[in-house]
Design goal:
Oligomer: homotetramer
Strand content of chain A: under 5%
Number of strands of chain A: 0
Radius of gyration of chain A: 19 Å
Helix content of chain A: over 70%
CATH topology of the largest domain in chain A: Tetracycline Repressor, domain 2
Largest sheet of chain A: none
CATH architecture of the largest domain in chain A: Orthogonal Bundle
Largest interface: A-B, 41 and 39 residues
CATH class of the largest domain in chain A: Mainly Alpha
Structural class of chain A: mainly alpha
Order of helices and strands of chain A: HHHHHHHH
Number of domains of chain A: 2
Distance between the termini of chain A: 45 Å
Number of helices of chain A: 8
DNA sequence: TATGAATGAGCCTTCATTCAT
DNA sequence: GATGAATGAAGGCTCATTCAT
């Protein structure tokens, strides 16, 4: 593993353990097992970490999503698997996702966000596109815009359940079901498929 | 205005101007026109501000929502007005909303969140309840859960458009329309009503 | 003594002991008996100390000069007393004078230098003016320019002797004599007076 | 050009561009086109550069002085040419000369100073010696001491004009004239020659 | 209650120096 | 000799919090 990746992983780990604000460069280098100065060989400042972490997180998410969502499943099933994946990642990394929000947002790295998140949006767009072409969803939606709405919906649902609500399994499943039901209607999923 | 409110308003103002991380207690007291020490007469620490601000923000949002959504309008129209209101508040206060997200979340004030946001959820729940009773939406949804989904959806849509996308009026309106269309389908709004 | 003066004195002391570059803000506050943060209540940065120190040094020099140079002495005697005074201050504070040079010069405080050093130049200018009017020096010199030359000459002579040469009393006195002789000729001091 | 000279030249260049304090070893090696470690093959530390630079600077000054001062000129003319040369070098290298002052002085390299500056002193001493023998100056001065005073005077005059005063050509020339006049009297230059 | 000067722990960052290749 | 990635001590500065008035 390259030293740069090493730093990113250490940072993610510390962010999950101590929160973003409380994590210092000193924490990160200690975890990464490198010297303080070495950090600055790879990142010009602490803030410059954020895009790299965001990228890493999106990659991880894409990985899990691709692993969860089976190629051969029906669209309905795929949606279900997708929701499962997002809930999973949110449960394990919601602290870090808040970072992607807050960290990226509070700096001047806003433009990078779009780039970083792009593959995720695209993946959903493709999914919706296929579904529309297969005539299993309503054909009145704007694909790209709807993709974003879909992601926003599922992520916020997952955040609500893991950050603020009790996280007992039963409740989580009910929330997932409600999201799916909400989604099916929103997309006009054809029941008979 | 009580001195406590004074502090809260000053904090919100500074957060909007300088961002949350960059705002210091010193900034806040200067804006509030009080002494450094006085702050600690009303709040035990800087973090203790967050719930108070969240409360204020939710109040402001409720106010705007109540002002925007006309009692006599149809459910469809009400939804539209609601979306307008959320977009409006997000545009003007997205920095501060990020605080409610990140600030509350990163501290130990998580439990307070529920309480603070409660009136907002309730208001939407009531709206949905009425709609269901009037038989203008599908009757298969869990009201409270759907209320949260609805809020999450609209807020994330507004954030996407104001934080990351270009904010030209035309684009914003398209996004609003897509949200509404998405929502109408999700809630199973009866077209004929 | 005000806390600001306290800091300035502590800084001068440390500069004399450790040299300028080696002196840290931490050293200064320790000597001044105050907290690290207190320093920044009175000076926005470490560099901002320099003009204040320069001022203090010039004041000290003026004080010693005024004490040394007797009102009723002849011009020749006054010159001699002046050279003594400059040598004295240089011996005790040459490290700090280097600071005034280097410190002021290396920052953007150059303009302040003129202001700070002004009373010193003026004092010499007045002395020369009187001498010219009393017809005890040549009347072909430009008073202000010559004042600066005179100060530059005496200071550099003192620096040479205390910084680089051996500082035994005999050698120092010879150097003083040579300076005076040089000066008397340069100013065209009338011997018979 | 040897690698050592290369480093010295790079250092001088960077000192002139960025100032002494702000110049890092990293800057120097980048300019010299060598690796960070290579620096330490030729100089045991950053401070060890200073005498080498001083030497280089004095050499440069001697070169310019020798070029400016014509063998066949009268003593008066030679003095004038000498002042011109010192003003020239000061204008172009005053930053670096401050280094020779401050840098050498503040370190433990004081003793080297004498050695380094020696040829310069000697050259002036020789000039004065000749003048005395030719009976064109007063014969009451101590040659070596006066040589130092002369250099101190001219250098401080040049520094004053280039560092603190306005540097317009007219003013500079007036200062030069005043220095020369001061000098002629100080040395007791015989007018009729 | 109200003040605001004082505190000091701790942060980010720099950079001279080293050393394995 | 030459390299340049790695080191880590140390510095300047910030700012939430305290406390004597």
């Amino acid at each position: 593993m390259s030293k740069k990746e090493n730093i990113v992983h250490a940072a993610i780990q510390m962010f999950r353990e101590k929160g973003i604000d409380k994590t210092t460069v000193s924490d990160i280098v200690k975890t990464a097992g490198i010297a303080q100065g070495t950090f600055y060989l790879y990142f010009p400042s602490k803030l410059a970490l954020m895009p790299a972490i965001a990228e890493e997180m999106v990659e991880k998410m894409m990985e899990i999503v691709k692993l969860s969502v089976k190629e051969e499943a029906t669209f309905q099933k795929k949606l279900e698997q997708f929701v499962d994946a997002v809930f999973l990642v949110t449960r394990d990394y919601n602290e870090v996702q808040a970072l992607i929000y807050a960290g990226l947002a509070s700096t001047e790295h806003l433009k990078e966000w779009e780039t970083v998140y792009a593959p995720f949006y695209e993946w959903i767009s493709d999914l919706l596109q296929e579904a529309e072409e297969a005539n299993v969803v309503r054909n009145t939606m704007h694909i790209d815009r709807t993709a974003k709405l879909l992601i926003g919906l599922v992520e916020s649902a997952a955040e609500q359940v893991y950050l603020y609500d009790n996280t007992d399994e039963v409740e989580v499943n009910r929330q997932k079901q409600e999201v799916l039901s909400f989604l099916f209607h929103a997309l006009g999923v054809k029941e008979s498929i």
